[in-house]
C-alpha cells in the first residue's frame, strides 16, 4: 500500500498554530504553542500526532513521520533536514515488520542538521545532538551527543538541573562569600 503525501496548511489563530490535512480532514490538527515556528518546507505526514511547546522551531526540509506521537518540549530545535521517524522496518525481524514507537524531545534540546531519530527514543532535557547523527537510544540529559550510533561525548555546562538562565561565576564564592 502506497502512502500519499499529505499537504498541510498552517494557519495562525489567537490560540496558536493549527496544522491540518488540506481539505481532507478539517479540524484534525497538531497541538502547537503559539510561539512554535515551522518552516514551509517541513514535511509532516500525520499532524494530529504532533505536540510542540513554546519557542520550538522546525528547520527547512525537516521530516516528521508520525505513525506514533512525537512530543517536543519548550525551546527545542529540529534543524534542517533532520528526520524524526516513529516507524521503521525492523532490520532484526526476518519479515521486516514495522517497528513503531513514540519519540519525545524534552525541553531545551537541539536535534542538529541531517540527524535521524529512530522510534522509541527520548532526547533528554538540554541535549544537543550533533549534525548527521543517528539516535537509536535515549540520550543523557544536558549532554553533547554525536555519531552513528549517537553517544554522549561530554556534559553541557548547565547539567544536573541547574538553571541555565542564571549567570554564576564558575569560580564560585571567595572566602568573603563574594564571587571571585
Description:
This protein is mainly beta and 180 residues long. The protein has no helices and 21 strands. The chain has strands at 8-13, 16-21, 31-32, 37-38, 43-44, 50-52, 57-58, 63-65, 70-72, 77-78, 83-85, 87-89, 98-100, 103-105, 110-111, 116-117, 122-123, 128-129, 134-135, 143-146, 151-155. The strands form five sheets. A seven-stranded mixed beta sheet has the order 4-7-10-15-18-20-21, with no helix packed on it. A hairpin with an 8-residue loop joins strand 12 (87-89) and strand 13. Residues 1-24 and 167-175 have low confidence and may be disordered.
In short:
The protein is 0% helix and 34% strand.
Q: How is the biggest beta sheet arranged?
A: 7 strands, mixed
Q: What topology, given as strand order, has the largest sheet?
A: 4-7-10-15-18-20-21
Describe the global form: globular
Radius of gyration from the CA trace? 19 Å
Total strands:
21
Q: Which residue ranges are poorly predicted, with pLDDT under 50 across at least 5 consecutive positions? A: 1-24, 167-175
Give the proportion of residues in helices: under 10%
Query: What distance lies between the first and last C-alpha atoms, to the nearest angstrom?
Result: 66 Å
Structural class: mainly beta
Which whole number gives the mean pLDDT? 82
Strand content: 25-35%
Give the H and E element order: EEEEEEEEEEEEEEEEEEEEE
DSSP helical segment count = 0
